[in-house]
Amino acid sequence: GSESPVKQYALASILIVLGALVAVNFVSSRVERESVISRLETEALGPAKVSTFKIVEEISQITDPSSGMLLTLPDDTSVIDRIVLNALVGQQVARVDILDAYGEIVYSTDPFYIGDDSEFADGPNSAWSNYVGSAAVSGLDGHTALIEAVITRVPVFTEGSVPGASSLETTVVMYRDVSAAIDAATSAGARFRFWMVI
User: What are phi and psi of 57, to 5 degrees?
Assistant: First the structure.
């Protein structure tokens, strides 16, 4: 009560400026995170398409497909595990599902899901990727981890045919772990904004 109006005004001004800086920091971090996620979704498509081609190409050499569909896979899933791991070298993919033409999971790096109908069975005739947020994924090592995932869905159609329901042979779904990439990008931005505020 004994402080001068000038001091009170100065204190109020400082608090207003700090409040504004915190608000700008919050909005900036949200925008930056969305931008990073959008970039990661786009960047996931290229490697997913290449890996899908490698996986389908190698599996088709060891199966007896009928009309091109993956109807018979080897009983020894370690053979497919090896093919999948080779196709994903250097990528942060936590789980891979291979669907038949009807949307049933005929192979997964998490055997628990084999035989289930995939929620990603239906979709466009082209590859897409989508950030789904936190997901509990069990990988080839048998460990379950909570990751921030980008799902890529790559449909494979009979060669030379018009992409559509009648020519769909298989779909490969990949759960890509983007946790580290998001953390690295957003923490760098957060440090920059922190020093700007200081």
Answer: -60, -45
CA distances from 16 to 19, 33, 55, 183 (A): 5, 26, 58, 30
Query: Nearest CA to 171 among 130, 122, 115?
Result: 122
| Distance set, CA 195 to CA 11, 25, 139, 185, 187 (Å) | 21, 11, 39, 16, 12
pLDDT in tens, 64-122: 666 556 666 777 788 888 999 999 988 888 899 999 888 999 999 888 888 999 999 88
Give the three-class secondary structure for 97: strand
How far apart, in Å, are the Cα atoms of 101 and each of 81, 98, 120, 167, 169? Answer: 20, 10, 12, 9, 5
CB atoms within 10 A of CB 157: 19
Q: What is the pTM of this model?
A: 0.76
Distance CA 123, CA 40 (A): 20
Q: Are 108 and 96 in contact (CB under 8 A)?
A: yes
Contact 155, 122 (CB under 8 A): no
Cα-based distances in Å from 72 to 64, 107, 119: 6, 11, 22
Instruction: List phi, psi (to 5°) of 113.
Output: -90, -10
